[in-house]
Design goal:
single chain, 2 domains, Rossmann fold, UDP-N-acetylmuramoyl-L-alanine:D-glutamate ligase, alpha/beta
Length: about 500
Amino acid sequence: MELIYTSKEIKEMDAMAVQKGMQILSLVEKAGEAIAQQFESLNPGVVSIFCGAGNNGADGLSAALLLAKTRKVQVYLLRERAINPMMQNLLEAVKQSGIETAEIETASQLPDQWPEGGVVVDALLGAGSNRPAKGLMANTIEIINAQKGKAQIVSIDVPTGISPDTGTVKGPAVQADITFSLMGHKPGVLLYPGAKFAGQVRLLSPFYSEYKAKRLRFVVAPEALPDLSRDRFSHKGSFGKLALVVGSEGLSGAGALCASAALRSGVGLLTMASPQNTAQLYRQTLPCALVRALPEEEGGYAPCRKELEAHWQGATALALGCGMGQSKGVWPVVFQALQTKKPCVLDADALNALAKAGKQAWPYLHNQTILTPHPAELARLLQIDTGAVLQDAMGAAEALAMSTGAVVLCKNASTIIAGPKYTAVVTQGCAGMAKGGSGDVLAGCMGGLLAQGYSAFDSACMAAYICGKAGEMAQQKLGPVSMLPTDTIENIAEITKQLCRTAK
């Protein structure tokens, strides 16, 4: 499992290692060794390492000593502040080894050119700093970024200028091709916009640690997902019944996408409920679904408690929201669904209704409820500014999950799934999925998995991974411009097939 740690947790991990008898220098040397080993797969040219005065710079110096045995290495140490005795000893060792070394105090001392085709290493700040780069540091970042396309740019732990905990950018930042994450991923290299600056992220674990964070955070890996194989003697009742409430006048497409994705997820039986006009459309276009017409009021939802009670009957999970619209009748439907205590996905217009109901509705949520907000919807649910969510999307998702007991899936370039105790990040997805309807596909897939008996947290992780990979496959075939959410649905089957690992 690839774990995720905050900057505070990394410091606690280092402190625990020291308490167990490891020396700081030993930790630095192990980090340097792990970094140097990665260079076998990088450009063969000159390695230029820019080091700060802290531990990140020490890791860079340690790597330089090893790389110099087989490569030409240049070291540039920024002397913005005094360095500690360990750093001074490493610097002396670098000089004595014959490595070309420059101690930089002003921008005029920075190199203006060097051989192309090599590797430029950013070992300036790392995971221990949240401060924006200014002065000499900002000048150095500009110099490094000027080599983009001419040399490979590698950052150690976190590209300098990126917040390690949130991925926010508050000034100039290194645009890395590769980032080496030491001991664990930092949220900032997985979440937008930091992920855009991190490039390919490689996890390095130079030493074993018994450290356990108070909150488990991890990257979803396909090998950790459940085996979707099925017994040939199973039947439709073996794979659950999903009850959807979707669609309204002028918004039928969202419900159709949701239903199609749910069917592709493998649910045994799918029932749909929608106002009369859209219900008629679904009957004509979705032959694999059982469709119930609900009373209609001005194109939206009218009071329909008895009809919904019949609709929920026998369902193993519910999913609501896609294309329901903003009519006043939506919240009573959502409220009635929550009162059933069945596993439930609330998406799109169901989230809008929940936000309007306010925090007094939170007690009706439970640990088998999945909320699927994008950042603006998450802000409305928390009653905060959208900008605050964008500054710390993971923190916002975790806050809502812990406050409500629900699972919160925050949709972004990387998907965040926060439960009351755990947080997962799904990095799969692509530019071609940035189209209206992709969220409806995700909601349907999630509802279908939830109905099959998977937990809310697992269903959210699986659906985000499956839809992300299916979207990537569609983009490979069609390109990012012309692919549609329906193309993602068509490729769900290939991904679920890959997750069937056992022949039965």
